[in-house]
Amino acid sequence: MKFLFDHDVPDDLGHVLRQLGHTVVLLREVLPRTAPDAEVLVHAAQHGLIMVTCNRDDFLALAQSEPHHGLIVLFRRKSRTAERVALVRLIEKAGETGLANNVNFA
Predict the structure, then answer these.
(1) Contact 36, 55 (CB under 8 A)
(2) Are 40 and 6 in contact (CB under 8 A)?
(3) Which of 22, 39, 51, 64 sits most deeply, having the most CB atoms within 10 A of its CB?
(4) H-helix or E-strand containing 20?
(5) What are the pLDDT digits (tens) for 6-57?
């Protein structure tokens, strides 16, 4: 699967997904830091990337009105380990068909 990590998602989560064979694009690699959230979601959709963000409020609202390839809202936890476990479990459980074009929470 291919993911776009928002600025607020820790880079080390991307390393874990890459080790599992997924593609992870960091937002700062493809768009300016000042890009509006709507532009970010459009970019992800145009490139077949599932958006991963901790910015729940803004992206949930956008996902209701904008086309997207999938959205994962990551809840911040007390440890990075807990965040990694939640994200990997969601990906393994939902699979690509469960993530694509849907909104999920990890």
Answers:
(1) no
(2) yes
(3) 51
(4) none
(5) 999 999 999 999 999 999 999 999 999 999 999 999 999 999 999 999 999 9
